[in-house]
Amino acid sequence: MFEQAFKNIDDILHKDAGCTSELDYTEQSSWLLFLKYLDALEQDKAIDAGLAGKKYRHILDPEFRWDTWAAPKKADGRIDHHKAMTGDDLREFVNGKLFPYLHAFKGKASSADTIEYKIGEIFGELKNRIQSGYNLREVIELIDGLRFRSQTEKHELSHLYEAKIRNMGNAGRNGGEYYTPRPLIRAIIQVVDPKIGERVYDGAVGSAGFLCEAFDYLNAKPGLSTNDVDTLQKRTFVGKEKKSLAYVIAIMNMILHGIEAPNVIHTNTLAENLDDIQDKDRFDVVLANPPFGGKERAELQQYFPIKSSETAYLFLQHFIRSLRAGGRAGIVIKNTFLSNTDKASVSLRKLLLESCNLHTVLDLPGGTFQGAGVKTVVLFFDKGAPTRQVWYYQLDAGRNFGKTSPLNDNDLADFVARQKTFADSAQSWSVDVGGIDASTFDLSVKNPNGGDAVALRSPQAILDEIAALDAESGEILLGIRGLL
User: Fold this and answer.
1) Measuring CA to CA, how many Å separate 374 from each of 34, 111, 175, 408, 469?
2) Looking at residue 406, what is its pLDDT?
3) pLDDT at 50 over 80
4) Which residues belong to any copy of the DNA methylase adenine-specific domain (predicted)?
5) Into which CATH architecture does domain 164-475 fall?
6) pTM listed for this prediction
7) Where are the alpha helices (DSSP H) in 129-243?
8) Structural domain boundaries in the chain
């Protein structure tokens, strides 16, 4: 039922002049889903208050509640089309009244970790792009048919929402920016193994895949107490995200996974001076796939001891500084980080090896990230002791990854099992840091078992990478033209 509703929503948005891509479809679905969710949350809280003999104070004024403006009902539970706005009336109400009212919550909220603040933040970042009030009416009625009341319903909705995010990621060149394959995230979490009571951080949160999967991992632990559940809801997960669309999607994704008021902050993580990070700001666990490529303003580099135009290098410094002593991290980065000979790469490898125990490097084949066009590795490290030995694992699934054959959990099962004991195999081996060149700190993946031969890629994979690089070149040229 839910799957068909999502498909029908996309079909309507596809016809609307204001929505042109998967990104728009996901964005517009998100704000409507959020308001429908908020209505369900308020109904549940009102029932709970009534059972406790208390009066519930609604977050939204009557005029702006879902069952007033979006879906007024008859006695039989069907939408009352005499009361329900449509066409220009609906569009003008949403744009002129609803969004300004909801945005104003940001200024009135008691703190940034309240649902009120999130409401204000979301509706300050988004705008209604659905130009036809008739299309908007159709979408609202489909959204109204979705239910958020049971865990089963939320679980199904969260899976469908994840599928939308995956499609959105696949729609563009920078798919990896929005979507890290969930089997990879789950494997990283199994290795890092966060515990209840630890604080988990992603400073490049994207669609919040790492935080959602970490919540699922911890929430599935047997015998959780009421205090444990409260800790997971309020004192465990922290994310930061610069881009407006990703920020909103992250919040909606976490809500659908069961986190009521997600602690995601809309900010540029890299604008934070590393010297300002104090002990109280540090985390037990960092899980992240920071964006690759030099897209940050040059003046932000002053905040980092190792200057670089590569955003992933700035993020890596931020993550090392953000970990408490004994903290653990799993971070995705381009594989060229291991071998580049420029000053920043060498200095950063030296910092990592001397201040952290880089115990594991997972080498991923090309095609792991749809549409990204780069080869990546995952760095696993603990902060506070220098690296003595690095265990490498070279993933070889025996096939080329692509849209029709994506990475799955079974592909990573051998890695997760062997990593527990740093076991040697045809795909895994250990390297003593004492044997690494102290002038370059080169950490290249060199399989002593002969497994580092270049894998033959399919013509489709090669064409995808060429297209991705062409698109990137086009963006750079446009940027240069803009400066002339």
Assistant:
1) 34, 40, 11, 19, 10
2) 86
3) yes
4) 154-449
5) 3-Layer(aba) Sandwich (3.40)
6) 0.85
7) 133-144, 151-171, 175-178, 182-192, 209-219, 226-234
8) 2-149, 164-475
